[in-house]
Amino acid sequence: HCFPRFTLKFERLKREYHSIRQTNIETSTEFMQHFLRLAGFLGAAAGTEEEQEKNF
């Protein structure tokens, strides 16, 4: 029963990861922490290091 909810959350995190942008109220350190947290949750779905660099 938890699987569909996990899948929905994973898909939401994946969308957030692929559209992540630093806001004007977020420091570069806060942005990097947010980016790395998302990449950590997504694991392999976040892509290779090269693909992650493009998103960062």
UniProtKB/TrEMBL annotation:
This is Zinc finger, CCHC-type, retrotransposon Gag domain protein. It comes from the Eukaryota. It comes from Tanacetum cinerariifolium.
